[in-house]
Amino acid sequence: MGLFGSESKFESSVKFVPYSQQAVYDNISDLRNLEKVRDRVPEDKISDFTFDEDTVSLNVPPVGEIKLRVVDREEPKCVKFEAVQSPVPFNVWVQVLPVDEQNAKMKVTVGAELNPFIKSMVEKPLQDGVEKIADALAQVKYV
Question: How confident is the model over 86-108, as pLDDT tens digits?
């Protein structure tokens, strides 16, 4: 148990993606590809959305600025991110597994250090958020 409480995990359901595992991995492992989803980001909920190959920053009212950095790439199956600026320490894993040559499936997992009081307040919104991230990633054209 850390300073902030115990680690809580939030997992999306498994999403089917009609692209090869390698194509999906290649896109999510380079954050410059977020340009493809910029038009799907709701400007009333997120602002100051910037990114480069390894980091992404955004401002989420009322939470504030959040910055994530890629900390591990396991080609072609997983990309791990860590919050480098956030009110709460957390990690994100995007796992990609092959279904066949042209199709893959993915799952998004968020692990956060939450004390029981905070967990009770953020559990539902975090779970919903993880599901929305996975839905958005499943709709990207990975070409």
Answer: 888 899 999 999 999 999 999 99
